Amino acid sequence: MTTPDVDEFAEPLPATRRALLRRLALGQVQGRAPSLMGAVVREGRLVWTGSRSSVEGADPDADTQYRIGSLTKTFVAVLVLRLRDEGLLDLGDPLAKHLDVPEAAGATVAQLLSHTSGLAAEARGPWWERTPGALRPETADIFGERPLIHPAGRRHHYSNPGFALLGALVERLRGASWGEVLAHEVLEPLGMGRTSLEPRAPHAGGWAVHPWADVLLPEPAEDTGRMGPAGQLWSTVGDLARFAAFLLDGDERVLGAETLAEMREPAVAPEEGDWDGGYGLGTQLVRHGGRFLYGHTGSMPGFLASLWVSAEDRLAGIALANTTSGPAIGAIAADLIRIVAEREPRIPEPWRPLTEADPALLALTGPWYWGPRAYHLRLRADRGLELSPAVGGGRASRFRAEQDGTWTGLDGYYAGETLRVVEGEGGAPAHLDLGTFVFTRQPYAPGDAVPGGVDPEGWRPL
Q1: How far apart are alpha carbons 298 and 305 in whole angstroms?
Q2: CA-wise closest residue to 63 among 203, 198, 190
Q3: Which of 152, 66, 89, 84 has its CA nearest to residue 333?
Q4: Are residues 291 and 413 in the same domain?
Q5: What is the reported pTM?
Q6: Is the pLDDT of residue 6 over 70?
Q7: Does pLDDT of 327 surpass 70?
Q8: Domain membership of residue 123 as a residue range
Q9: Which positions ≥6 away from 351 have C-beta within 8 Å?
């Protein structure tokens, strides 16, 4: 009897679809949202969308634009990382190297991306999200009386002006507006034709819902000008599904997978009392239901948005609403992932043997010893290596093969460290040098290259 093939790209099963729609419906009712859109991306493809609306027969669809607020920041971060990958800047560069902004001269590009620049959370008044950007025509106009709240690099302090500066940085190094650069370098390659700086029909209208009565008030949708990189964009669940697929696997036309993995590494410690969340380089990081999720939430007057990706489950959840407050939009998007992951867990790829085996690499596999501690070294299909303790917990890491015959640690304690094979007589591997730690074939064998030497009498009873 053979196992039937499972289409990982198929839409969820009927019971799963009902559970997804129910979660969306609860969010719309409990949050009193005029409308709420949801979507699930599996293995890089949009496999489910759902919507609820307070107006019968006027449900939005995957092509309806909503304002996505601070999700814009992740797009801007992609532009900055492209500049870094091209060698036009370094993340450690002080902003002053590229822009004349005295208020943030001491902050680095990385600190701006991770909200550790120390800059104030908001722009100079009046409330920038509800007023025209023409009130702040120049970069210097976004700063109030206290532009710097904390010393740069000391703590996480969310800063919308910080991302306005990153947009200005993109403009300086590209010689075009950040919106034009975004369209050319990200939106067009990813096929995101329904993502824009200004709303394009069909789009939802933004509303405020009275806190104590079921009545509405329209919210303004201003062009925020210089503050645009902090939250200007409009998009659809269809386009955001494409962006989620990009955040999962990368696209060499935009950013490779390695750079995207760097963006989701925690750049700062979580706030005291909040060990379920953090921030990378333009991406929010959360733990929800035991899952590590990355992406971003967003809010602007009249709108809420959330996009989360689970790399382990190969799933993404998207939620959009046209209300200033109410629905727990981040939890809704996370729950869409949870529902599919629990009801239809991912089926792993089949194990397959190597197509060819390099004898020199095979000779490295097996037991190695760091002092008396036993480790296993395994060969992976991509010529990489995996080092793990033989028993118990400890310093396990995966290693990427480099062109010069060394390996670079990818995770754990040895992330970024270099693994070298030191050959003995006849060219056979004698020991491993891992960031100055020596791994030998026997535990403290006489004559081995163990730092500090080995007692010549060798092992003995007590």
Answers
A1: 5
A2: 203
A3: 66
A4: no
A5: 0.90
A6: no
A7: yes
A8: 14-343
A9: none
